Amino acid sequence: MTKIETEAGKVRIGIARCLLGENVRYDGSHKLDRYLRDVLGQFVEWVPVCPETECGMGIPREAVRLVGELENPRLVGRNSGEDWTGRMQEWGRKKLAALDKENLSGYIFKHGSPSNALGRMKVFGDDGKIFYSGTGIWARMVMDHFPSLPCEDDGRLHDAGIRENFINRIFTFKRWRDVADDGLSPAKLVDFHTRHKMLIMVHNEVIYREMGRLVSTAGSADPSSLSKEYAAMLFKALTYRPTVKKHVNVLTHVLGHFKKDLSPDEKQEMLKLIDQFHKNLIPLIVPVTMLNHYVRKYGKTYLEQQFYLNPYPAELMLRNHV
To answer: Which Pfam family name is an example for this entry (predicted)?
Structure first.
């Protein structure tokens, strides 16, 4: 077990049932995503949901589509015009109340689903105009109910950078939930912020510095208000995707902790790896692996506790592709 797997158990993630291979689509088929089920599934606990079958639609069933206003569409049968909007919303309100108890740290929707699409969904306007930026009815309900929850769809997760960022966010969300739910003392907040320093910096350094100023008030601020404000800033920062330039800045910052330890050859080797990463000649995992080696070799406790160097299980191999 790595330090990434929290003491409170696996990360719990909501997911469209069809992505796990369940035959719940309108035609009785599935949309199995093997990476999600077989790779990520080793480190998370899935909370499967199929809004269409769970709100009363059968299998197989008539295909449905979004009709009407872009921001408030109706869910209707493609041929019959039967309106399922009210029934899905009524079921959805009850389901959201149940999900409140599931301690979710993220949600993966199904691209192209009129109930489950995170975005980029067709909405057929009443005047004949077609919009291409709609959101599935259930997906919108989830995001409105859990505004800070990391959410993605299976289509976007095929992008290596988006996948790495999303999985980073869900593991960070889980660590924050564990700390906050256990009672957030000033000492715990300072420890959390310190251990996540470089991870937050690689997303948004400006917000990181604002968070630092907030943490400095931990001894006198109201704990509840402080927790909410810190969490809002944390999750906002993590929505910014890291870039090669941001990673280079953080990698160089980490290297600065070894200025009294590395031999001239070791330093030059490390600088060369960072430069090769900067030029997209090698993936991020290469300089990070070398830095982790030096962390162990020279006993750098502070760096060993930095989640930037080990943000999630290495078996996910996410930094092999960014």
So the answer is: DUF1722
Whole-number pLDDT of residue 9:
78
Q: Strand, helix or coil at 216?
A: coil
Measured in whole angstroms, how far is the alpha carbon of residue 13 from the centre of its chain?
10
Structure tokens, 121: 């969904």
Domain end among 158, 176, 193: 158
Domain limits at 278?
167-322
C-beta of residue 14 within 8 angstroms of C-beta of residue 47: yes
Are residues 61 and 127 located together in one domain of the fold? yes
Q: Say how many C-beta atoms besides its own lie within 10 A of residue 45's C-beta.
A: 13
**Could you tell me if 225 and 154 lie in one domain?**
no
Cα Rg for the chain, rounded, in angstroms? 22
Give the Cβ contact number of residue 97 at 10 Å: 10
Cα–Cα distance measured from residue 262 to residue 122, given in angstroms and rounded to the nearest whole number: 57
Same domain for 154 and 237, yes or no, is: no
pLDDT in tens, 138-181: 999 999 999 999 999 999 999 999 999 999 999 999 999 999 99
241 dihedral zone (left: phi>0; alpha: psi -120 to 50; beta): beta
Sequential DSSP letters for 275-287: HHHHTTSS-THHH
* 6 in a structural domain: no
> Is 58 in contact with 23 (CB distance < 8 Å)?
no
Among the candidates 158, 177, 211, a domain finishes at: 158
Q: Give the residues across from 29 on adjacent strands.
A: none
Residue 319 near residue 284 (C-beta atoms within 8 A): yes
Same domain, 146 and 251: no
Whether 93 and 204 share a structural domain: no
Residue 140, token pair as written in the block: 């919108």
Residues 183 and 205 in one domain: yes
Q: Is 4 within the bounds of a domain?
A: no
pTM: 0.93
Q: Which residues, 6 or more positions from 285, have their beta carbon under 8 angstroms from its beta carbon? A: 317, 319, 320
**Residue showing tokens 């000492």:** 187
